[in-house]
Amino acid sequence: MDVIKLDAKTREAGKGAARAARRNEEVPCILYGHSQEPVAFQVGELDLRPLIYTDEFHRVEVAVSGNTYDCILKHVDFHPVSDRPMHADFQVLQAGEKITLTVPLQLVGTSLGQRNGGRPVQRFNELEVTCLPKDIPDHFSIDVTDIDVGDTIHLEILEDEKFEFGLPMNSTLFFVQAARAEVEEEEDDLMGDTMAEAGEEAPSAEGDDAEE
Length: 212
Hints:
It is built from five helices and 14 strands.
């Protein structure tokens, strides 16, 4: 896993200091963890981008006030209009202590069903997992190349004693739906068969009159 290094500056607490940081295109941050006193700092908005806009999970080394902390980016608040990062939380990692985090889920390949006109459906873009810091993956991946229409991939395909997932192991991760036109054609065929069967079973009025 890649480690991203951030050179940060300590900051004062309070909304005024946070607003001043944002005016200078810096993001107010907080660093915390088990037995770790919270550390308030700020870092350049551009320096945060590799952590925010990525399909990979990264560990982070935050250097501030002469100390270096081994962390992960835990949460980011974004401005509701501009979508710029407004605040970021970092959690310190402790060796031998499990941590719960979300890791990106990536698909590998183009499914057989999609190549045949089906519609691929990915249920989750990331997965919650609990593991030791040394086992944190940068992402999970599943190969969907051989998945045809009607086939399904469940979470159990990623089962590993190193990971405790936040979802049941029978949770669906990926499947391929039939194309809508194909579904409608099947529905029309089924309706036609049903009507034909009904016509065969119902006696005609003309036949009834003849019997009388």
